[in-house]
Amino acid sequence: MMQFTQSSLNVGELATGQELSIPVYRVAAKDPSAPSVFVQANVHGAEVQGNAVIFQLMKQLERMDVRGEVTLLPLANPLGINQKSGEFTLGRFDPITGVNWNREYLEHSIDIPAFYQQHCHLDDVQLKQQFRLALLASCEVHLANPWGVTTGKRLAVTLQTLAHQADIVIDLHTGPKSCKHLYCPEYDRDSARFFSIPYSLIIPNDFGGAMDEAAFCPWWALVEHAASQGREMPVPVAAFTLELASQERIDMRDALVDAQGVLAYLSFRGVINEKVAPADMPRFGCLLKDYKKYHAPKGGLVEYLAQPGIPLKAGEPLANILRLDCYGTEDELTSLQLEQDCVPILHFASASVYQGTELYKLMTNVFEL
Amino acid sequence: MMQFTQSSLNVGELATGQELSIPVYRVAAKDPSAPSVFVQANVHGAEVQGNAVIFQLMKQLERMDVRGEVTLLPLANPLGINQKSGEFTLGRFDPITGVNWNREYLEHSIDIPAFYQQHCHLDDVQLKQQFRLALLASCEVHLANPWGVTTGKRLAVTLQTLAHQADIVIDLHTGPKSCKHLYCPEYDRDSARFFSIPYSLIIPNDFGGAMDEAAFCPWWALVEHAASQGREMPVPVAAFTLELASQERIDMRDALVDAQGVLAYLSFRGVINEKVAPADMPRFGCLLKDYKKYHAPKGGLVEYLAQPGIPLKAGEPLANILRLDCYGTEDELTSLQLEQDCVPILHFASASVYQGTELYKLMTNVFEL
Amino acid sequence: MMQFTQSSLNVGELATGQELSIPVYRVAAKDPSAPSVFVQANVHGAEVQGNAVIFQLMKQLERMDVRGEVTLLPLANPLGINQKSGEFTLGRFDPITGVNWNREYLEHSIDIPAFYQQHCHLDDVQLKQQFRLALLASCEVHLANPWGVTTGKRLAVTLQTLAHQADIVIDLHTGPKSCKHLYCPEYDRDSARFFSIPYSLIIPNDFGGAMDEAAFCPWWALVEHAASQGREMPVPVAAFTLELASQERIDMRDALVDAQGVLAYLSFRGVINEKVAPADMPRFGCLLKDYKKYHAPKGGLVEYLAQPGIPLKAGEPLANILRLDCYGTEDELTSLQLEQDCVPILHFASASVYQGTELYKLMTNVFEL
Amino acid sequence: MMQFTQSSLNVGELATGQELSIPVYRVAAKDPSAPSVFVQANVHGAEVQGNAVIFQLMKQLERMDVRGEVTLLPLANPLGINQKSGEFTLGRFDPITGVNWNREYLEHSIDIPAFYQQHCHLDDVQLKQQFRLALLASCEVHLANPWGVTTGKRLAVTLQTLAHQADIVIDLHTGPKSCKHLYCPEYDRDSARFFSIPYSLIIPNDFGGAMDEAAFCPWWALVEHAASQGREMPVPVAAFTLELASQERIDMRDALVDAQGVLAYLSFRGVINEKVAPADMPRFGCLLKDYKKYHAPKGGLVEYLAQPGIPLKAGEPLANILRLDCYGTEDELTSLQLEQDCVPILHFASASVYQGTELYKLMTNVFEL
């Protein structure tokens, strides 16, 4: 039975001096030509289910013939995970600055045309290697800033340094109250059929600060530039964010389902020798521009009627807003509907909202994948 | 159709000067001999379902022949309800002091033997009236403290002043992830069969700061003292806390079920003229001393296996604690069991816990009511 | 004595249904050619001193001959101001999303070359009027989004709508532990000599989401485009952010000092008829690119040695980091220095820090204004 | 030069599995008859200055002839210290439950008459030894509760177990914005003249959950019971809480001043061989019942005028409350006064308050010590 080696990644220091560290599990490559994989979980503190998926993944991989290097980082944000406020985990943003932990990854300022001009004589493998070195150097420079880096940037860029060394990057998140969905770059939409996930968001090449974007955007830009210079090459790095249903939930059995989905993809990519078939299920897609946020038109108490993952026809009830201060008027109970068909993907975690709270995220113009 | 009158109760002032106020709905007594009722909801900010029950109660009462005065206060803690921290409502305690909003009610320092000696010549009705006046005077003195009162005390004692004017006090709460349960004073355990609630905690005459205790403890003490002096009288005030399943949830249909339970009790007490039968369901009880808190024996991620409201045999799995930092050791996944039969009533809201977090509350030595 | 009229601006609704509203004080223009003024304070909840400055400003203006319209909004963020967490005001960012309240203003997507081409035949006054209408229309469209807008966006864009109607926009903030400083757009650096503020940051035309930028960036862009087309015109709108020393502080006497500075500027601009001389004091500037953030190189307890506003030579002690867990080693007490001369402008509010916490903000390459 | 040994005390576990531990510095007793000392600091997360005092104390003790055992625990609440909310440390209460970290110590349920009856034949030294064992056994039983103990209870009772082993217990705290003051049990008021602290609260034998009370209350009760049985003995344990001015402040020089005060007391008690004279300064006292909390009579912005530690005559200005929403009315600026002479000891940390916020704590009926 294969064994993962365990090590520890230092990502910061608390006020008491306690080290912030992340457990790192790794198995080395048997076959240097097999892709390498980086999986992390729980960068948002309340989004714990990814850890269970990593656990099940390790249990499965132990029995498999693993060809490529696999690096797994559960509990990837110790500060965020341990930060409670009331009964819940306040782990979506840095408690001091408010910055979303998943918007801290580094946007490299590499001049891609200049880089390409300098390295275009190399073959694909060498070009990839040189570009990877450039990305790693950029991370290193950022972390060595003589004025220091913020707590969140240190965490993110340290994780990014590991991610840039892999060919496949998988970031495990969850929504608040959510069905499973996947963020998938447009160039890689065929890969969505391997994961055990019914809904995929097809995303363009815009950097917004998230890990998946940090992993694939520079490569995609490089490939597009090369194409503009007449050289065709596939994007050498694949990166996905898996949203594993709701936060504040551990479900070991469901974790196994998602671990199987990841294995199906790794099998397809040749990371493992075993054949793992993807789950047989319908899968749907939506362009990111058609992914809508619906905000509460008024403050009040919310009865969420539309269930995440269940298609909702135009005019069907989405939610009720109850207003006890308006009892006896027409505002006492407001029924909310939408004017177009959609699939609600997630809704807000709390049943009481301010005006403007993001109530639902919904896919519109959904298509079969 | 009967109409509730609406007024507004001032309970404080925010830093911007905005008034904290609570909507008050009231119908006057038709029959002065019918008991009067006070119902409040949402003193803990995240426990919103009681508002929906009040809403359904009003909709039902509108069509009924209401004999006794009914006073309803939804949204009874505007500061707590509007206090978010991350996606959830941080409404269990004062954000400044940490004091639980439901531990702020006033423990009166009335000398009951002296009061009784002075008033024992009165008949039961007059005695009740005098004691009520003493309770109200005690509240008034407390609120008029020349050094001021805390934010939480002002809220609580203002609510208490209204509650003391009623014969029946109902405080609507919820648990975190919870089945429905009722706090019922021992002297009133026969009343538990009216509410649509399967599990009742039978509580003794100990003041712990909660509304129900604030409402009944002084009366119970008075009645016990009278008994020690040879005069038997029933406890003139009934007070219950209803825990309406989980927090952060509005369910209008389920609110109707609980409104029916309240109406069944009010029907029995003659507050309404209509006959409303209680729901036909098994009901169980547990003494407060047998209500146990189970604390996490270690930190980690929790898979809650035992469902609130479903009896659990000794040795059956309660929960798993997943520890990704201990992968490969016997601590990677710890199964928790209890050594005795119980009914889990509620569990913690979050799936990640520190060592010592209250994981479950469980009834032991459960009996049929 | 002149009277301000008071009205109220609705900016949202809480979960209880309570309206979020801002008091608006206004005096109408006597002279339509005099510039109009918009002043707001306390968009960050803990930054209260601006309210005191508005108070003193009103007390002064009451006795003056005010020519231009003046609109004053104290307490401009009722949600942020009332949001406590522990003893302090958690008012820097939306407690739900983490978004900084001062990064929510709208970046207009007006196509300036197209606008200019369409309106270049107008004279300066008319051109200004048309552009203002375009900005207001853009705000209106944003607020009318059928999918709704976030709580923070509604607040910000509602404030922005008022600000766009003024020729002079003043946003009153404070730092954490801070000396007074001013954000001043490069084109307007001569105006810095009017305020009672020793240090000015000279900022370029980059929109970062703040109110001052929201107010001047589109105008500056318009003027630059006109210049590129051969038409010279001054930037018609002036906008400043005043940082009035430290947060969580009300000082009525010091507020009068800053009110005098604002009046000196308004006097210079002809908003008031009275001559108000600026305070006689040295004033210094620093380009935004030379404004440095120094992050804690390690976690620990911090003794802040360098005082805000007092120049610090290279090598002089900035702060100590105390590490009780390292007692007896060379890490027990670390003295921090910088390698270049600077003026510390502000430091972090708390004496205990994580690694990476922003310890100080410092001006380097400071010049006399 | 004497060396402290360092060890580590485990007090819990975070959700990531990270151990919560406290550094423990200790020097063994040279002279078994010399009293033993326990000093802890920073049980409230924002109250950091006690760590600096422990640091200076260690630096001084290194050079001294220490006779009794000295145990020092800085950073005594790692969970509270590392818990930020916004820029400040949210360290006054458990973020999940709201329970004040300094109200968690165990009230022993030892039947003192029964204990005394059983052990009254022993001499004072033996009696003390037996009672100490009883206290330690009580702690041990509490920690071994099969249903577990809360996070805060585990921390507190673990600290208490160490404290019960000492003859002198010193708990280092601070106020919010505060002058130095001391909590001193009535039986020990003569000891107040050793510390470098001008104001002392003389406290009775009532257990309220704090460390000092946990340390001395059972002993005081034992001694009083013995006295009632005709046996006079001094209270064998001394316990003090030192409030070292304001929270969120590290001042190494001032820490030395307070370390000298502690050394003066230890010198007097014979813990160290050196003579250390107490600071020559006036010292005042106040009975706990005369220590008043003044609550904000309205919400608003607060200008704190009375300085902690400076006596305030009746009728002199205490604070102003500024209400911008009331501009132009008599409520725009309210001056607050008290009707009796007092010494303000501390005030609230924030400049904006709800109605009812505790604005000031003040000593009345102050006397010279």
Order of helices and strands of chain A: EEEHEHEEHHHEEEEHEHEEEEEEEEE
Give the terminus-to-terminus CA distance of chain A: 37 Å
Main sheet makeup of chain A: 10 strands, mixed
CATH top-level class of the largest domain in chain A: Alpha Beta
> How is the largest sheet of chain A built, in terms of strand order?
1-2-4-3-7-11-9-10-12-20
Q: Which range does the strand content of chain A fall in?
A: 25-35%
In quaternary terms, these chains amount to: homotetramer
> What are the low-pLDDT stretches of chain A, counting only 5+ consecutive residues below 50?
none
Overall number of strands of chain A: 20
Largest interface: A-B, 50 and 50 residues
Secondary structure class of chain A reads alpha+beta
Helix-residue proportion of chain A: 25-40%
The name of the CATH architecture of the largest domain in chain A is 3-Layer(aba) Sandwich
Would you give the CATH topology of the largest domain in chain A? Answer: Aminopeptidase
Domain Succinylglutamate desuccinylase/Aspartoacylase catalytic (chains A, B, C, D): 34-268
Cofactor (chains A, B, C, D): Zn(2+)
Keywords (chains A, B, C, D): Hydrolase, Metal-binding, Zinc
Pfam family, one (chains A, B, C, D): AstE_AspA_cat
Describe the structure.
The structure is a homotetramer of 369-residue chains. The first copy, chain A, is of the alpha+beta class. Chain A contains seven helices and 20 strands. Chain A has helices at residues 49-61, 78-81, 112-119, 124-143, 151-163, 211-228, 252-269, and strands spanning 5-13, 19-27, 37-41, 70-73, 84-85, 88-89, 168-175, 177-178, 181-185, 199-203, 238-246, 284-287, 291-295, 300-304, 317-322, 333-337, 343-347, 352-353, 358-363, 367-368. A ten-stranded mixed sheet of chain A has the order 1-2-4-3-7-11-9-10-12-20, sandwiched between helices. The first copy, chain A, has a four-stranded antiparallel sheet with strand order 8-17-19-13, with no helix packed on it. Chain A has a four-stranded antiparallel sheet with strand order 16-15-14-18, with no helix packed on it. At the A-B interface, helix 1, strand 5, strand 6 and strand 14 of A face helix 1, strand 5, strand 6 and strand 14 of B.
